[in-house]
Automatic annotation (TrEMBL), chains A, B:
Residues 98-235 form the tRNA/rRNA methyltransferase SpoU type domain. GO terms for molecular function: RNA binding; RNA methyltransferase activity. It comes from Flavobacterium flevense. Residues 5-83 form the MRM3-like substrate binding domain. InterPro entries: Alpha/beta_knot_MTases (IPR029028), MRM3-like_sub_bind (IPR053888), Ribosomal_eL30-like_sf (IPR029064), rRNA_Methyltransferase (IPR051259), SpoU_MeTrfase (IPR001537), tRNA_m1G_MTases_N (IPR029026). GO terms for biological process: methylation; RNA processing. The keyword Signal does not apply. Belongs to the class IV-like SAM-binding methyltransferase superfamily. RNA methyltransferase TrmH family. Pfam families: MRM3-like_sub_bind (PF22435), SpoU_methylase (PF00588). This is RNA methyltransferase. Keywords: Methyltransferase, Transferase.
Length: 243, 243
């Protein structure tokens, strides 16, 4: 059973302000929930339609009817389970290795895909401008497919961050140097820009190393690359010599 | 004004069987419609809420109220215009250059993103297994952002196609050769597999050149790459020496 108050609380967590108030977020589906349970995330409560997740104690688990799951789910087609977790304290930001910096990424699917890519390429730190979509947005949590447990994400002022770092800062620009011919280090910060506007002017002025993914199609017409796809190609280039 | 019959026809085009019956599909949004108008696609009718698209004759254009646009749109938040186009005859399949072959891609967003990537990397031919999502699905048309006008897409039996081609056939497999160390030609067919199951067994058996994108993160846990992201990385590798 799930009470009216619980339904109200959980649906409110689709909004960032209530996630901040309650310091809670939720995830859906066996795979993502299992990864969160296996990590350092602290479970608040699990709602499931099946007698599963035996490792979770009865006090933290409720059997829920499909119709009630629909009421609390953020998905069009709800999965079999939904779990509320505590938002962990922000961890210290890594100061070495390869770091992805996101300048106002708005689409939850893009942020989730980028975290999945970071996980694949062994990038452990992502820093986001404060305007970037919240990592605990249910759509982001879903799109990360569990990578949220392995990549450290911090929100900060990107200009301050770049000004204070000792690492080389790279950014992708239409007029940047051909990435295939650039000398790419093992360590550094790679800035990826907003879906519609690219890297903001203020951040762009602080970037010394301007790189570009060359375009092979019709130069007049071809659309720009999607930011998540571009991040994949850029990470692949940074990592390929160390595989 | 848009009649009840027109509304019924247009909404039916969200389903493949009615697109086949009527040999029509629709696109939404100024950018995509403009690209289709500028290409060889033949306009059936344009519905717009604004006095725009001056190049389209009055007979093929109707001013439509926002509320009616909502009725015919496939989008949650409709754009300002929707246009119905004729499905063109399938063009001859290219037998040279780099060709992407898709083995049962189900997600419209993935197919759209892959076409956008092909457009960027100058790949002019995509061949799809018959189980791959239809290119004239409204969500695919939207996700291509106009690339649908520049990439030739054919549906066929992939096994027959691979058996009959003279080109080298590459496929991505978990146990394939490190793509960063492979010798990749300028011409060839690259097979990308289904989101959940990868390349099917029947197709896989016909592929001589098995490649893999190395994984750098936690080998036990990291999720597989999304197929669109993987296509981007693979295309970048095939093209990087020719930039």
């Amino acid at each position: 059973m799930v009470s009216k108050n619980q339904i109200k609380l959980i649906t409110s967590l689709q909004q960032k302000k209530y996630r901040i108030t309650h310091q809670l977020f939720f995830a859906e589906g066996v795979k993502v929930i299992q990864e969160l349970l296996d990590s350092n995330f602290e479970l608040e409560h699990l709602y499931t339609t099946q007698y599963d997740f035996e490792e979770v104690s009865g006090a933290k688990k409720s059997l829920i009817h499909e119709n009630d799951l629909k009421k609390i789910s953020a998905l069009t087609t709800p999965n079999s389970c939904l779990a509320v977790f505590k938002i962990p304290q922000e961890r210290e930001i890594a100061t070495s290795g390869l770091i992805i910096a996101l300048d106002d990424i708005r689409d939850p699917g893009n942020l989730g895909t980028i975290l999945r890519l970071c996980d694949w390429f062994g990038v452990e730190q992502v820093v986001c401008s404060r305007e970037t979509v919240d990592i605990y947005n249910p759509k982001v949590v879903q799109a990360t497919m569990g990578s949220i447990t392995r990549v450290n994400v911090a929100y900060l002022d990107l200009c301050d961050y770049i000004t204070q770092t000792d690492l080389s800062v790279f950014g992708t620009f239409m007029d940047g140097e051909n990435i295939y011919k650039s000398n790419l280090p093992q360590e550094g910060i790679i800035v990826m820009g907003n879906e519609a506007n690219g890297i903001s002017e203020a951040v762009g002025e602080l970037i010394k190393k301007r790189i570009a993914i060359p375009r092979f199609g019709d130069l007049q017409k071809t659309e720009s690359l999607n930011v998540a796809t571009a991040t994949g190609i850029v990470l692949s280039e940074f990592k390929r010599n160390f595989a």
